[in-house]
Task: inverse folding
C-alpha cells in the first residue's frame, strides 16, 4: 500500500528495493502526465484451462514506468489514481489498449482469447463506464464476449442497487463479469446470488498455503463446489507450484493463473505466446526482478 506520511508517499518499487519517500504532490503530477508521456504499460498474464492445459484467457495488469524511479507497482499508484480521480482516464486507457490489441491480433489471424481487466470502485460507479465500454468496443470492432471485467465485492457492496443495475447493462451488452479476490474483504454469499457474474476468482491468499493449511483447503474446496452449484466458473489466482495446481485440479477448479504458468507478459511477448512461440521474442528480464 502507498502509505501517506506527512507530505510524502512511501513507495516500494519491488520486493527487493528499499522503500523510499517521495513527495506526494510530485508523484501526483507525475502520474497526471504518465498517460500523455506514454509511461503506462499493459502486461497480460495467461489464464489456463485446467482440463486441457491450453491458454483460455488473460488478465490485463497495469504498469507504470516512472522515468526516474523505474517500475511502480499498481498497488502503489492505483489507490493514488483512485483518490485523485486519475483512475477514470487511466481506466479508459486500459480499455482502449486492450481493445486495440484484440483487434490487432484478430487482423493478424492470431487465435485470440478473452481479456479480463480490473475495474476500480470509482471507475465502476462513474456514469460513463457503460457507454465508454460500448463505444470503445464498437470503435475497434471487438466482440463484447472477448472482454471480461473484474470487480471486487467491496466495490459492489458500496452501493448494491446501483451496482446491480450497471452489471445488468454490461451483461446485456455481452461482456463477461468476474468477482475478483473472492473471500477477502466484505464477503457476502448474497452477492453471488444477486450480482449477475460469470466467474469467481479465488484470492491468492487461500491458494498460497492450500497444502499446509487445512482451513485454506476447506475454503477453496467449498468455494469451488458452491460456485459450480451456482453455475459459475472458478479461476484460482497466484498458482506458483505444482502441488497447488494438483489440489485445484482434484477439486475440479476450472481455470488458474499464476507464476507456475506464466508471469504477466509484455504485449509483444504475449502476442508471441498466442502465435504459439513459447520463448517469445522479448529479451526483457522477468518483470518481477526488474526495478528501475
Ligand atoms: P489482482 O487483480 O488481484 O491481480 C493479481 C495480482 O497478482 C497481480 O499483481 C499479479 O501480477 C499477481 N500475481 C499473478 N500471479 C501471481 C503468483 O503466482 N504469485 C504472486 N505472488 N502474485 C501473482 P499486480 O499486477 O501487482 O496488481 C496488483 C493489483 O493492482 C491487482 O490485483 C489489481 O487489483 C490492481 N490493478 C492492476 N492493474 C489494474 C488496472 O488496470 N486497473 C485497476 N483498477 N486495478 C489494477
Ligand atoms: Mg484482477
Ligand atoms: Mg485478485
Ligand atoms: Mg469446467
Result:
Amino acid at each position: 500500500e502507498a502509505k501517506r506520511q506527512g507530505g510524502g508517499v512511501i513507495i516500494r518499487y519491488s520486493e527487493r528495493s528499499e522503500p523510499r519517500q517521495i513527495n506526494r504532490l510530485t508523484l501526483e503530477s507525475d502520474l497526471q502526465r504518465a498517460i500523455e508521456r506514454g509511461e503506462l504499460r499493459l502486461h497480460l498474464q495467461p489464464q489456463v484451462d485446467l482440463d486441457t492445459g491450453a491458454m483460455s484467457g488473460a488478465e490485463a495488469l497495469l504498469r507504470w514506468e516512472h522515468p526516474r524511479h523505474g517500475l511502480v507497482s499498481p498497488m502503489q499508484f492505483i489507490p493514488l489514481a483512485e483518490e485523485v480521480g486519475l483512475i477514470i482516464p487511466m481506466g479508459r486507457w486500459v480499455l482502449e489498449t486492450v481493445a486495440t490489441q484484440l483487434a490487432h491480433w484478430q487482423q493478424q489471424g492470431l487465435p485470440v482469447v478473452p481479456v479480463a481487466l480490473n475495474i476500480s470502485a470509482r471507475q465502476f460507479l462513474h456514469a460513463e463506464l457503460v457507454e465508454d465500454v460500448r463505444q470503445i468496443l464498437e470503435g475497434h470492432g471487438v466482440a463484447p464476449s472477448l472482454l471480461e471485467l473484474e470487480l471486487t465485492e467491496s466495490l459492489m457492496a458500496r452501493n448494491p442497487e446501483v451496482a446491480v443495475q450497471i452489471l445488468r447493462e454490461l451483461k446485456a451488452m455481452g461482456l463477461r463479469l468476474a468477482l475478483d479476490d473472492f473471500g477477502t474483504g466484505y464477503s457476502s454469499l448474497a452477492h453471488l446470488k444477486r450480482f449477475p457474474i460469470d466467474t469467481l476468482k479465488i484470492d491468492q491468499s487461500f491458494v498460497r498455503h492450500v497444502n499446509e493449511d487445512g482451513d485454506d483447503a476447506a475454503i477453496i474446496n467449498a468455494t469451488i463446489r458452491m460456485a459450480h452449484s451456482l453455475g459459475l466458473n472458478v479461476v484460482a489466482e497466484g498458482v506458483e507450484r505444482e502441488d497447488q495446481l494438483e489440489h485445484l485440479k482434484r477439486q475440479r477448479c476450472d481455470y488458474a493463473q499464476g507464476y507456475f504458468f506464466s508471469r504477466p507478459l509484455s504485449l509483444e511477448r504475449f502476442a508471441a505466446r498466442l502465435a504459439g512461440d513459447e520463448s517469445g521474442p522479448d529479451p526483457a528480464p522477468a518483470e518481477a526482478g526488474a526495478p528501475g
Remarks:
- The pocket of magnesium ion (ligand 4) is lined by residues 254 (CB under 6 Å).
- The two ends are 19 Å apart (CA to CA).
